[in-house]
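Hi there, hope your week has been kind to you so far. Thanks so much in advance, here it is.
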Amino acid sequence: MKFNLHAHRNALILFKLALESGDLDAAQKDIELLKTAVESNPAVWDLLSHPLVPAAINDEIFKNKFTKSVSSMLELIVAKRQARLIPAMAEEFRALMNKYKKVEELTVETAISLEPAQLKAIGDKISRLRGSAVAVKERLNPELLGGLILRCNEWTADFSFRSQLESLRRRLSE
């Protein structure tokens, strides 16, 4: 996801609010839930961003649904009509949480969705190899022929069929 300064600032404010109130984990669950709701349900998106829906109505609808820190941030971004920032803000918040907990984010890119047990096994193996805790995030890429690509910070391991075929092609052309 492309870096967004406003989303980063809002995530940083949310992080500090959640840290002060001692509800970091609950805030992370709430912001992820809000991100999922916004991305999967156009009605939620419309409700939060439509200029004809007063911010006070949104405040009343979402009141007591989230932690105090997430509710405060939601109130602020709805009032400023910045609901479009919620997905990027959730990503930025996750990155801040990982940094705070000293966890590296591992992205597993595949053509089809993997089972949770498979993702956990990959995460456990990479965690042992890197010597640090990893948080696994799956990214679907239908352009992959098969296999997977692992990304963790600057480290990338490409186990896709495309890269294997390309490697074979290079060896045969030598």
